[in-house]
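Retry 2 of 3 after timeout on previous attempt. Resubmitting structure tokens to design endpoint.
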């Protein structure tokens, strides 16, 4: 099987550019995932983010998680659990309006560092969207504009820790799903693995690499590229030892952004629009109820709505 795509972003600045762009294109078309090294976020800075995230978990979250496990009797489960994930999480919103100052129990230094980390990731996400535009033959800035809506993109970080699990064969760290949003940038533990993606019917490990950023594509990019790029099912396998840290930052369309296949791509491929047109917030509301099910019925549901109400006129009026 082909090896998991690792992209060295430094190679975009020289004669290696064409080959690197080709690797990104192949990863987007055939994996829906790739891993970035030399992406411009300083290793020492990433070390501080990791250290403080793990400290915060130990101080403020670990005990709470243990109490939840005890209350639900999860250590003693005998059969597969399908309605919860073995993870401890909280969510930081950065755009359009940050909520970092409102999250309880965060030390000031951690708030400051996470704000800075978000700013750097936002820049990286927008740089990646432009590289995707270049590969797709879309004008520079098209994807950023498509995500913009009236208030700019939604951007936030899910801070997760996956503690050791006594029954990993019965409880998933995070059940299989595709991501509803745009482009996702993940800073994950480099010692404790667990993230897997579905490729050609097989679950493949996403290798933990020090100071790398793992990128995956969400449902919205599948729609805008008219299926040229696909969002891919992934999951987290719980481990019996070691707590795995995961900081997943979601660069998503604004709530009122209208999402539909890029006309330039539909024309170029001489095909029809294979995906519906919808408002991002409506898609999210629908997704939350069916996150752990196949994505195709989600697209179908919006196609049917579009056909029934001819939403296109309203959305573009």
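Retry 2 succeeded. Sequence:
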């Amino acid at each position: 099987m082909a090896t998991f795509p690792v992209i060295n972003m430094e190679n975009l600045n020289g004669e290696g550019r064409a080959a690197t762009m080709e690797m990104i294109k192949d990863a987007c078309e055939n994996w829906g995932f790739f891993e970035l090294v030399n992406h411009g976020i300083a290793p020492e800075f990433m070390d501080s983010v990791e250290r403080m995230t793990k400290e915060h978990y130990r101080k403020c979250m670990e005990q709470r998680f243990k109490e939840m496990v005890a209350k639900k009797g999860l250590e003693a489960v005998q059969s597969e659990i399908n309605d919860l994930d073995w993870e401890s999480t909280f969510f930081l919103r950065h755009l359009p309006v940050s909520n970092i100052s409102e999250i309880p129990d965060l030390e000031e230094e951690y708030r400051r560092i996470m704000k800075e980390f978000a700013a750097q990731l936002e820049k990286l996400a927008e740089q990646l969207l432009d590289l995707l535009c270049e590969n797709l033959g879309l004008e520079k800035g098209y994807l950023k504009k498509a995500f913009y809506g009236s208030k700019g993109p939604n951007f936030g970080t899910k801070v997760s820790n996956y503690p050791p699990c006594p029954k990993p064969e019965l409880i998933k760290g995070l059940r299989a799903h595709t991501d509803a949003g745009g482009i996702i940038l993940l800073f994950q533990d480099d010692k404790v693995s667990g993230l897997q993606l579905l490729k050609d019917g097989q679950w493949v490990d996403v290798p933990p690499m020090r100071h790398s950023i793992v990128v995956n594509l969400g449902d919205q990019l599948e729609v805008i590229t008219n299926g040229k790029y696909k969002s891919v099912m992934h999951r987290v396998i719980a481990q019996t030892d070691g707590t795995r840290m995961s900081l997943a930052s979601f660069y998503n369309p604004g709530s009122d952004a209208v999402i539909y296949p890029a006309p330039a791509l539909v024309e170029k491929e001489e095909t029809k629009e294979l995906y519906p047109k919808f408002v991002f917030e409506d898609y999210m509301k629908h997704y939350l109820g069916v996150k752990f099910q196949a994505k195709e019925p989600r697209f179908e549901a919006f196609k049917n709505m579009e056909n029934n109400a001819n939403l296109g006129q309203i959305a573009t009026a």
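Attempt log closed. The chain has a mean pLDDT of 95.
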